[in-house]
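Sorry, explain these tokens?

___
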Amino acid sequence: MAAGRNGPLAALDIGTTKVCCFVAVEEAGGLRIKGIGHQVARGMRAGTITNMEMAEESVRSAVDAAERMAGETIREVFLGVSAGQPVSQTVEVDMSLGGQEIGEKDLQRTLKEAKASYKPENRTVIHALPVGYNVDGNRGIRDPRGMYGENLGVSMHMVSVQNNHIRNMTNLVERCHLGVAKVVSAPYASGLATLVQDEMDLGVTVIDFGGGSTSFAVFYDGEMVYNEVIPVGGAHVSNDIARGLSTSLANAERMKTLYGNALASQADEKEIIDVPLIGETDHEVANHVPRSMLVGIIKPRIEEILEMVRDRLSASGFEKVAGRRAVLCGGASQLAGVQELAGRILDKQVRLGKPIRVKSLADATGGPAFATAAGLLSFAVRENFDDDHGLSAEAKTPKNRLLRIGNWFKENF
């Protein structure tokens, strides 16, 4: 069944630490999850493929589990990507109208011209998002159709990634006998899953703490206007713990989850934790260390990641547009103390983001770690809803066969 056409929608999020597949069906009032499959990612590092066969095995396992649970066979997926050195750039194009009324053809011609004007070398454009129109220099127009003017301009937010990264990821999916309906930037999908409409309009930064990378996106006036990826994530925290305490990666991950915190407290010095040493099987030879030592390893790395986000955001020129709110998602965002530390470093009001636009998500799969997968489904509905002019929700006219989806979109976006 083709995604979103005659059958279910399918989302595939291939990350550094896990591979997740969601299968959903369209219903009146929203999307209902029918199948979920997630596996430990193997053959991946920092969002890129390091072993094709191992990565293929992980993807096959996740997709098979989702198909079995849903009782459906999927043929194509909406694929989330968080690597490939994404570049975010705004392109502005003006077209002469000769004082006539702006119609659908004028809009299409302007958008086509904007897309054609941006051709980065050895890169693939995965998003071309209209973030604002202007008529005769008057900006802030969301739907110019029906207006008269001499010139029609559009600002397009272009997101491009390396050609070879897209080829490798597409090849990985095709080796699993699946097609790629659309490649979607991971922080964009996470924003669609977790943000409320007011946040999108007023300005917000979505920060996706993944295993191998941390990506962030700025939303303003209802659309994503900037995104970037930093190649440092939660797995680097686990590596620091493993090296600092001479333990295995599995034990480091366990200690991070059970005892880890991004903020120090007075009780840390008194609480003693057992650290199994590498190669030792006898529990008696475990290294007993205060919890403060673990926190002392975790906090600097989380601070470094957040400071990099702050500095990159400032350098991008979108810091003011991003407003005073930030939403955290991704598996590493669930570490205790991250939300409070992010508020201090970013000087923003910070909340933890969970998927809010899909139904039937269990507690285990309805948290921040699964925001990208859920957001891919929201993107699929958004993509099918209209001709993607970047118009405001109230300006869009739903297609007859997608009327129910259109009503859902208006309620949620």
